[in-house]
């Protein structure tokens, strides 16, 4: 196959096809981050408050402190990966050397060390332990996941092929999330009567499953990346990269990027807020077991996995914006109904989980499929490709969405009079104020973010036709040997 350069060849993007092995290898790179992120999103806050014995307020602070570090960590790694030079390319070295520490610090988050017989002293010891591990884990998560996400535009330029490539990525991503929940159900059933041991066994198994696929991704995409890296270097005009702050200014002057950021952030906060509160909603409001809330999340994610491929095909005919509107509309119906759901309506709860999966699928697929188009617009305007900068902020916002969702749940629960579960004892009866707060967190709050995301998607300016025009202008620039930014681009988009 004749591989066109993602920098210099926009002439034949419609004919460009990636091999199945490349797509599978690329998709595998998101398996480990998905497994770890899903376990942290679904179980960590619940683990802190109901197994480790931390108060909801302290638990929420741990999650937020770790993500504040990401405000520095993510953009820095993005810039460094853009500037990395090696025989493995710009992105692969980060994945190769970051994979093992990424697994180690994920595992350490599920230990419950004992620092003192005094409950207050022990609480603060646990607090600082989890803060330290969280910072280290987030550092290595960024080191492997951010360069991985920046591989997308280096593998293909084709508009539809990128959507298809992201379908493989999120098939592995949601598949990893599903796998983590299936493993949780199995391990919780086998290891009974000791919640701390349950989570530790689950963490050990998932650590191994998270690290190994990263090396599959590197191995399976290395040839494609090596070819495009050589072409990128050959087409470079030798100019020094812009200073970091100036690059940030250019990034945030990219109007479509701001829309994508808003769409993604609204969608992701809604996802993480819902996932974080479901354990409390199922256990305390619906009065069902921990196993049941795992099954509810499983239904959402299995549906989302199946719908990834459906939405990908629909997107080719109707466009990304139309798909986003259809998926979000179904999810909004589910969120409204969850608020009014009553104990005993278990079957309806699973129906609503199924309906929510339609929307969650578009929240994964559509914003990430928009990102490469934004990067090409930036190339047209500036003459440089800065995938790491753009993806750095997207990954940062993904983590902020996760942290904000968990932080918000923890703080609202703490302020509503929620009673933490003492390790080894049955969940206590919660006051009416805490139950009402749980219902608001699972329904009206994510609904507000979904409606805001729909408004931003309506005004998103890069359609299929606009993207084709961007590629045509990049092709013309190549033909005329012009490396400088085209001033007409910023006027039209």
Describe this structure in words.
There is one protein chain. The protein is an all-alpha fold and 493 residues long. The protein contains 18 helices and no strands. Helix 1 packs across helix 7 (159-190) and helix 7 (159-190) runs antiparallel to helix 13.
Task: Show the helix and strand layout.
Blueprint: H1 20-28, H2 31-50, H3 56-83, H4 92-108, H5 119-149, H6 152-155, H7 159-190, H8 195-235, H9 244-252, H10 255-285, H11 290-318, H12 320-340, H13 346-382, H14 387-415, H15 432-442, H16 444-458, H17 464-479, H18 487-492
Runs in which pLDDT lies below 50 for 5 or more consecutive residues are: 1-15, 482-492
Element string (H = helix, E = strand): HHHHHHHHHHHHHHHHHH
Count up the helices: 18
Structural class: mainly alpha
Helix content: over 70%
Number of strands: 0
Report the radius of gyration as a whole number of Å: 23 Å
Tell me what portion of residues adopts beta-strand conformation.
under 5%
Averaged pLDDT = 81
- How far from one another are the termini? 33 Å
Q: Report the principal-axis shape.
A: globular
Largest sheet report: none
